[in-house]
């Protein structure tokens, strides 16, 4: 995926000063960041972080944005206490690090979070969004948990061998045209498989000129030409959730 000579795959932007509007809570064996909007609601979205973990300001900014749009947003630590990747880490060791953090083996954490949302937050309508590593997790959860009524996978890595056609509920796939880590032929293959086999609503969308991580990277701060596409991606994400939750 990357090595020491390549840039950080989830380019984290310069939003490190963002402190968030929510609070940290304990959810069974893991910690989580929770943000609620001004009005009470029974709609909730699980926000799944990228390789940089649940405390990344960029991801909390996304959770706060969802809360402002009428959802209870929760960003749990799906690494369950294990260290997140840091941009300063040795990229030659990234593959070994990733092997110990399988985005498809998160059911224990997902069970705890969904129980918390239902019992502690009164949530009855549930969705999920995820970025990069979290995008892979969304693929898995949307084939596993029928109570998740909508999913948005943002630049989740896919392999030619992956078949994620058995989606249980509507799922939206966001990709960047110039993603160094997800070749466009893989996106095309994914769409072909979905059109052939998927029995629920889906959409696959490629955003022109964008790179990996564009929706949650806060690139609009530094790249005015990308701002319309960044805003479009966020609007599309929220509209999809609004449509199905």
TrEMBL record:
Location of the protein in the cell: Cytoplasm, Cytosol
Name under which the protein is recorded: Carboxymethylenebutenolidase homolog
Keywords of this entry: Cytoplasm, Hydrolase
GO MF, one example: hydrolase activity
Domain Dienelactone hydrolase: 30-244
GO cellular component: cytosol
Primary location class: cytoplasm
Similarity-based family: Belongs to the dienelactone hydrolase family.
UniProt organism field: Pygoscelis papua
PANTHER family noted in UniProt: CARBOXYMETHYLENEBUTENOLIDASE HOMOLOG (PTHR46812)
InterPro entries from the UniProt entry: AB_hydrolase_fold (IPR029058), CMBL (IPR042946), Dienelactn_hydro (IPR002925)
